[in-house]
Amino acid sequence: MVFVLVGISAHPVWLGLLLSYFIGFKLGLTPLGGYCDLINPSTACGGPVQWAHAMILPWITFAILFAALYVRMIRANVLEAMNEDYVRTARAKGASETTVMRSHVLRNAMLPVVTMLGMDIGLAMGGAIFTESVFGLPGIGKTAVTALEGFDLPTVQGIVVFATIAIIVFNLAVDLLYAVIDPRIRLS
To answer: Among 21, 78, 81, 184, which residue's beta carbon has the most beta carbons within 10 A?
Structure first.
């Protein structure tokens, strides 16, 4: 429960700075910031292994922020679905607990979570601005901040259009995923 409260309450800048200080600086397990190129290394830092090693702290920061919300949502939905009539009926028919959880409880509990995932793509792009700033990563968030500071209107418009298209495409994918998760929903 403490993890969920910290994840929901923490700001990405604060969380990123704490992780950089304790894991990167004090323990020396990861680089403090910067970026290693994945495909075409222009410096000595590059390649898939060094890239992944440099991205561990940004990934953890980003994951903690969203994992807390999703853990709480999944837990509430599973507890609610376990008390439904169709779950009791499946158990009464002799279905194994694994089958009941996978086929009945989780499929129905995942629909609100998938909905939330579709809406969180915009929030994730906003969180990327903070995460990229803390860890010194080149990305769309840092480009947006630099363009705003320099009054570069075409770049800002391009980023807004890209983010809008990404949100629309991701929401379309979520809507198509509904038909896979819930057989009552049919694509026509």
So the answer is: 81
Residue of 63, 52, 66, 102 whose CA lies nearest to 82: 102
3-state secondary structure of 40: coil
Domains along the sequence of the chain with CATH: 2-181 (1.10.3720.10)
20-77: per-residue pLDDT in tens? 899 888 998 888 777 777 787 777 777 788 888 888 888 888 888 888 888 888 889 9
Question: Could you tell me how far CA 16 lies from the centroid of its own chain?
Answer: 15
Cβ atoms 125, 141 nearer than 8 A: yes
Does the reported pTM lie above 0.85? Answer: no
Q: Which of 141, 136, 139, 135 is nearest to 122 (CA)?
A: 141
Q: What is the pLDDT of residues 79-100, one digit of tens each?
A: 998 988 988 999 899 989 899 9
